[in-house]
Every structure is written in structure tokens, then in C-alpha cells.
Amino acid sequence: MQLTTLPSGLKIVSQSLNGTEAITCLVLAGAGSRYETKERNGLSHFLEHMFFKGGEKFKSTKEVSQAIDSIGGEFNAFTGKEYAGYFVKVAAKHAEAAYDVLSDMLVSAKFPAEEIEKERGVILEEYNMYQDTPMYQVGWDFERLLFGDQPMGRDQIGSKENIRKFMREDFVKYKTELYQPGNLVIAVAGKCEHTEVVSQIKKFFKFDNGEKAFEWQPLEKFESANPVKIQNKKTEQGHLVLGVRGAEAESEKHFIQRLLSIILGGNMSSRMFLNVREAKGLCYYIRTATDDYTDAGVVSTSAGVDLKRLPLAVEAIRQEYEKLASGGVSEAELNHAKEFLKGKLTLRLEDSEEYAHLIGKQHLLYRKQLTLAEIFGKIDAVSKNKIQVLAQEIFIPENLRLAAIGPFEGREEELAKLLE
Questions:
Q1: Residue 222: what pLDDT?
Q2: How high is the pLDDT of residue 210?
Q3: Whole-model pTM above 0.90?
Q4: Contacts of 330 (CB under 8 A, 6+ apart)
């Protein structure tokens, strides 16, 4: 992995990968929903869509798409809480086309007013899709329950009210504030050579000078008055998330937490899958996962459950948390979890897109960048005792929060008692 920081503050990081003829160029910006005020909530995501509407050279969505489709490439974008990303993946011989398209999108975007109006309708339909998909919506309800009405607790897509009101000047101002070279990382992985990557990026990415003018707000301490949030809705299956606040991404507990979540519900041989789904038949899907942010972390279990047995499912998940805290894990379980995590990372990093994401995210958000060997070393250093100690720290009744979607009106008090 090689890094060059240009005088403008733009970071260029690359990784040459053996055995591939592909290359991915990924631009990451510190411009996710974490940077938004309540009035701007949803602007990061809307702006992501608008970057595809054309710039100086590629003047429309059609021209942007054709430039990549004509060489068999792939391109997409995403908006999270702490960053937004834009990538093009092509055969290495077409690398220049990737730089050309991405730079035109991000540097020379025009944000035509008529395209904003068209895309407004698209995003409102995306909003409706999520409202009609309880598996997604319950996760957002859980985040609001955990973090409250602050940027970390708000959905990336924003509110309908905000989506309807954003105007061209809002996009121009936001881009000027946050899409500055000092707030960007360009990560390139695949069949590439660092000096050539730097040369091409200097050629295409010519930003105006400027400084980031808006930082995210620090995460405020929040304790919800009620540990349960129910969205009453007619569904054929109940959807729930039960979890707690955990360790942040750069904490020494990060990989302990990752392994803990795998043991609990990270695969089909995990405790949740075997004990809650297979042994008790309480759900169809069930998984435990972590969300890792720079100053916060989450451990949560999501499940789709039988409507009539929601309390049994909540109780069964909580019991697995308690058993882990009181009884710890076996050496075999821990070793399986370590090899599972290392194996998944190895498979993911066969893909140049995933490798670009790994190195780009580290250089955008974190003070220390880890090689794959260092990551594996941290995974191997986790002990049974560390897993149990962390479980005892986080899985205590007052920390538990539960979000559910289904025909469960008026059952908050009943479900809250299961968390005591």
C-alpha cells in the first residue's frame, strides 16, 4: 500500500494486487449524514444522486452511463453516516476512463434544476420503498432509539419534508463545503502502479482551492425514556432489533466485539441461528452484527419472527446475550470465529473494489492504518476472557434497546419488562 498526499490535502492511496486485470478507483468524501443538521438531513444522499446528472464532459446521466457501459465497467455510489463513496471498476487498460468519469462527476457537477426535480421523485419513491421494507426500517428505528434526534440517530435518506424542499443552491453550498481535496481520499486497487495512479489523478482531479467548512457534531450522550420503540404496522412477520451500544472502530475492543458478534449470530453455526431459529423455530432470519463508527459502536441482533411469539423471540435473544456474559465461550468457538472472520476478509479482498474501500476508509477516518497482516494479528490476539469481559460490560439490562415493526400496538410496556 502506498500513499501520496498532494499539497492541496488530497490523499491518494493505492494497492497493487496480483492476479487481476481489473482496477477500481474509489473516491471517498467525509460527507455522510453525520455532517448534517436536522434541516439538511438527507442532503448527502440526494447530492450523491445528483453527481450522476452530468458535468462538463459527460453532460447527462446517459453520457455518464454510456462512458462506463461501453467498456464493460461497473460504477455506483453510496452514502453512509460518516462518508459517501463513488467508484468505477474497469479492466485496467481502461483506467483512464474511470478517472475521467469520476473527476467530471465530482469536480464539474452542474446540478441542473430540472434534473433536481426529476430526481426528487426518484428519491421519494426510494423513501417509500424503505417504508414498505420493514427489515430496513426497523434498523433505522433502532438507531433513533439508541442515539436519539441527533445526526447519528437519523436516516441517511432524510425526511419527506426535507427531500421536497432542497434546491440547487443547497447542493452547490454543500459540495463547496465538503467536497474539498482535504476532505477526500482517492483509493485505487487492482492492476496499478502508484506513480501512474498519482499522475493520472493529478491530470483529471483539478479541484478549486478551499477548506472544509463544516465538521460533524460530536455525539451527545443520550438515554431514551423508553427502551422500546414499536412501529405499529400490518405485516405477516414481525421484525425486531435488540442490541446495545458498544466499542468504537478504533478501540482496542473493536476486534473483540467483531468476534463476539460472530459467535452470537454471524453465521449458520452461531448461537442465535442454532438456538433461536433451529432449536426453537422462532424466526426465519436472525443475525448479530456490529456497526462501527469513529466514536461509537453498536452490537445488535435482528430477526424476522412469528407475530404471535415476539416476546418469546425477544427473551430467547436476551438469554443468548446473558449466557455469553455468564458462561463465556469455548476455545473451539473462538477459533472458529477467528478463522471465519479472517477467511471472509481474505475472500472480500480478492475484489479490487473491496480492497479500495478498506484502504480508502482507513485513510479518511482513522488515525492509524492497518495492513491485512496487522488486522489478522489483532484478531489472533483476542482471548476467551476478553470476549466474556466485553459481554459483561455491554449486555446489562439498562443498556438493552428494542425496536420492532408489526401489529404490536400498545405492547411497549410488556416488551420493556422483558429487558429488565
A1: 82
A2: 58
A3: yes
A4: 384
